C-alpha cells in the first residue's frame, strides 16, 4: 500500500547495524562541518553552504519529494537505545553520514525507464574514511530503498555517480544496480535498479532488518 508521508510523519528506522534518523535541525552543525570537506563536495557534487543556508536546506528535507536520513552505527559500548529521544541524543555524536532519496518526475525518469516506473534518485555518504568499508552505506541504502518501496511506492532507484568514483560504482553494483546511461560532459554514470517484484528488493551480503517504523513527534525544530 502506498502511504502519503507528510511533514509530520517522519520516521526513524532501525536496522541490525544502524539507526536512520530524519535530518533534524540538531544535526545541522555536524552536517555543515562534514560538507567543508573538498572530497565530499566533489564526490557528492555539492556546493559548500553557509551555516545559515544549511539550516534552510535542512528544512526542505522531509517532504513528499525528498527525504534525508542520518546514519548512526550501533555501538555496543554505548547505552542501549530504546526511544526516539535516546536515538536523537546518540546521533549527535555517532552520526557517520547520510542517505537521501529524491523523487524523480516522469521527465527525469523516462530515460532507461520505458514502463515509467515510479522513480527516485539515491545518494549516500560516509563522511569519515575510517568508518568506511563496514557496510554502513550498503545497509543504509538497503533500508531507505525498502522503506521507499513499501511506503512511497517507488519501483525504480537511480544513482548518478562520477565515473572515477570507484567506491560508489562498486557499492551500487553490489546492490544490483546496472548502468543505463552516461553523461560524458559531466563524467557521470547513471545506474538504476528496478524493483518491480518485492522479492527482487534485497541486498546481497547485507543483514539488514527493517524494524517497525516509529513516528517522531511533529517537528518543532
Ligand atoms: C561510496 C561510499 C558511500 C561507500 O560507503 P561504505 O560504507 O564504505 O560502503 P560499504 O562498506 O557499505 O560497502 C559495500 C560494498 O561496496 C563496495 N565498495 C565500497 N567501497 C569500496 C571501495 N573503496 N572500493 C571497492 N569497493 C567498494 C564493496 O563491494 C563493499 O563490500 P565489501 O566491503 O564487502 O567488499 C563511501 O566511500 C563515501 O562516502 N565516499 C564519499 C562520498 C561518495 O562518494 N558518495 C557517493 C556519491 S554517488
From TrEMBL:
Keyword entries, A-Z: Acyltransferase, Transferase
Source species, domain of life: Eukaryota
Span of domain N-acetyltransferase: 41-196
Family the UniProt entry places it in: Belongs to the acetyltransferase family. GNAT subfamily.
UniProt protein name: N-acetyltransferase 9
Protein's organism: Paratrimastix pyriformis
